[in-house]
Amino acid sequence: QVRLVESGGGVVQAGGSLRLSCAASGSIFSFTMGWYRQAPGKQRELVAHISGSGTTIHADSVKGRFIISRDNAKNTVYLQMNSLKPEDTAVYYCKMFGFSAWGQGTQVTVSS
Question: Which parts of the chain are beta strand (E)?
Fold first, then answer.
């Protein structure tokens, strides 16, 4: 089972940017990888995912502001978050599709 470690979260003012990283303990080559988030009192939701060939899909709520990318050589997936809003505040998790394991998540807090 691949282990996933998220990092890069923090506290930022509205309009600011953060870059999240997800490092996998094994190869991510050919696997679809996704970023999810869970705000307090809400269900976990899919933010973006990227296929093994690099095709990306972003949720409407983040389209034009967030960008998912991957570096297969480093077994790492990224989420560049720009123009952050208070409603983006959540714990962000990455996921390897087809596997049940989750990382510990990284907290993102956007202040108004």
Answer: 4-7, 10-13, 18-24, 33-38, 45-50, 56-58, 66-71, 76-81, 90-96, 106-111
Amino acid in the structure at residue 72: N
- DSSP conformational letter for 105: -
Which one-letter DSSP state was computed for residue 73? G
Residue 12: strand, helix, or coil: strand
Q: What is the pLDDT of residues 12-58, one digit of tens each?
A: 999 999 999 999 999 999 999 999 999 999 999 999 999 999 999 99
Residue 38 CB neighbour total at 10 angstroms: 14
The dihedrals phi and psi of 55, each to the nearest 5 degrees, come to: -70, 135
- Rounded-to-integer distance, Cα 31 and Cα 29, Å: 6
22 token code pair: 């997800």
How many other CB atoms are found less than 10 A from the CB of residue 8? Answer: 16
Tokens 């709520």 sit at which residue?
61
- Amino acid at residue number 39: A
Residues 6+ apart with CB under 8 A from 31: 52, 96, 97, 98
